[in-house]
Amino acid sequence: SADTLFPYDQYHPRLHFCTPEGGAENKAESLGSILFGDRLYNSRFELKMKKDVDCQVLCEEAIPGDDAKFINERIREEYKFNWVVDGLPAAQMAQSQSTNETFYSIGFSLGELTQDDKPVLNNHYTFQIDYHTEDNVNYRVVGFLVWPYSIADGSCNTNGAPLYLDESKPTTVKYTSRVYWNFSSVPWGTRWDSYLKMIDPQIHWFSIINSIVIVFMLTGMIAMILLRALHKDISRYNAFTEEDGGMEDFGWKLVHADVFRPPAHRMFLAVFVGNGSQLFLMAVATLVFAALGFLSPSSRGSLGTVTLIFYVFFGFAAGYVSARLYKMLQGEYWRRNVFLTAFIVPGFVFSTFLILNFFLIAAQSSAAVPFSTMFALISMWFLVSAPLCIAGAYFGFKHPTIENPVKTNQIPRQIPTQPLYLNMWIAALIGGILPFGAIFIELYFIMNSIWMHKFYYVFGFLTLVFSILVVTCAEVSILMCYFHLCSEDYYWSWRAFLTSGASGFYVFLYSVLYYYRKLHIHSFPSTALYFGWSLVMSFLFSILTASFGYMACLLFVRKIFGAIKVD
Question: Which CA distances in Å does 483 have to 251, 418, 515?
Fold first, then answer.
């Protein structure tokens, strides 16, 4: 819910819900489902196709005062049940406030708050199960709606008095249900359409238009400032070189003997760019599979599982890119480069994940990752990803060094005083806001999907926004790089990396705004969980976008300095 980030099992001992005869059985789940806190159990309900049940008593439970307080707190935090029938999640009918359209809202409330702000527990459930048939022989479930009610006397009379849990003494609660089967004309192949109905799709088109406007603006600046100016610059430089006696260099040509000087901390630059390439390939492969419909929400946890598998196997790309770049930057400590590429970024993510998992364990949340899954993650990292990274680095170092188009002087050139707006951090903050501006609308829906447990399924839009993001990062980094070179500042490597990478800083600021505007979290563990994962996502997004910027600037600088004649 918006008040907390800790899910609980249906059969948490303090919830006192009816357990199946013989005990609850945990169903096998995918790796992605486990990491996102999904746990699937069997239930006490017995559903038979087309057989209505008017009133069925499930069980009777005595809830002690302490546990009643626990349940009342969960009701105030707007916890919901998430049940599944034939792969379809339970839903309630809801209406959009903006368009007045009805849609299926996933899950249903544990309880309600009365007008005098007292919690009541929902202990009666009316099911409407929609079915479809083509031949009156084979029947399939195509919809699952639930109406929860609070009934104090344990009957199925939905107009009865509500059930209040007494926090000072035990309360006897009788759980009941009613089942209705309803024929639906919706075929089985489109049964998810009601769950995935797009409310107000214009906002996604606005996101695309907003992103395209930013790209057109940057492309126009690139075309007018860079291409025309660069064409004139290169023509003048080459013309002056051919004249007798030549002419003193000016503009960005002045730094031709220093522009390929290895930057400070080249080790970390190569490591981060290598990991950025791994994240890029992972994102592209996942988006392609999702846009083609292979990662449907009906396949629980498939998106998380496939993303993790792609990340692990693209460790080869991280090692290869990092090694080639480090070798080009004249690095000598190749063993350290391989080690850091394989472990520094995954290590940061895993360490944060481990710390946050302790909060989940302390809260007895179902999202706490068990030891067996933790062992599987470590095995994937050490036995698959790291060896692939080492193999990629081996091939990267085996390749010949990438030669620079101009030579580098032994004595570095003095850099003149730079204007304030070209300060490395100020320029990064200016440049980083444009890539963020291209994705911030779609980012809202992604964060809703993560923190509000809503389905995100518009992968076609997301693929287009991601493509625009790549172009925006490349163009804004090239633009700022050109300004730096014209000011005779040849330390462009880290500046190019940070210019587009600063968009991750804005993503984190947006997560802070989202926390205060959309969530109502008051507990420290939930706050730590939210900001911990927000920090991880912002950090990975920074590395991803920074790698775009650096690689684009590297190609740009090599292109323009390879086009001039230098004595």
Answer: 10, 11, 37
